[in-house]
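Slide 14.
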Amino acid sequence: MVTFVVGEEEAGRRLDLALADAAGQPRAQVRRWIDAGHVRVNDEPARASRRVRSGDVLRAEPPDPVGCALEPQPIPLEILYEDADLVVVDKPAGLVVHPAPGHPDGTLVNALLHHCGDLAGVGGVLRPGIVHRLDRGTSGVLVAAKNDAAHRGLAEQFRDHSIERIYRALVRGLPGRDEGRIDRPVGRHRRDRKRMSVASPVGRQALTAWRVLERFARSGVSWLEIRPETGRTHQIRVHLASAGMPIVGDPVYGRRNPTRLLDRPALHAAVLGFRHPRTGEALRFEAPEPDDLADVLRRLARREAS
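Slide 15: predicted structure.
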């Protein structure tokens, strides 16, 4: 059973959207639960389109999970930590996290199924074990759950924004300040549904703090540390682009002034910290910049010193 009390931030959202985020499940799966009568609001049946209110109690009793039809594949994984409840990996750039249109296999999920064995139904049939995502072009630390209890515990921490997340990014431009905070809602683009925007009519609050680690004046780029305080889709990429600091190599949000420094977004999930969902122990993991990004930084430093 999934039980969730609606807070002020979630008030006014559709039931299916609020519950999907709370349960860490795809919206389509949550809608199937609702349509089949497995979800109640304040102990009463409700429709997916219902707008939830602060204080509403959502309860979902999903049916037993069906077996996962995804194929395990022997894709190499860089394991940073593993126990009976979870596994932490250093995801390489270019690896898709879970199957999606255009990427039916060869994903992190396929690799986890091969490495961990039975993950059927943990967090959903199509995304077993997945608690959060990194974009295909983003490298760095990612945690996956091995059982439902761990999935619920980690999903709750992500939902409460109690996770420590530190990213590093190479961006175009030389900020006049050493640090800043971007407070702009993020939602689906009005015309392009594959993109996000700070001008969306249905944007949700999004906060991103940043500070300059190094400026490469001769190349017109800067190396930033970024701390997202919320977890919206493409949040860092959208926020930095909206602030005039698009990420180097980003083909979606930085196309107007392309650079040849890197052929993928220069964004790296450097640090992930959270409490173990079973023991409560504070865990913190860090992944060094991958070779392609580290090489770009070395070249920029040499040019700056010449």
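Speaker note: DSSP finds six helices and 15 strands in the chain.
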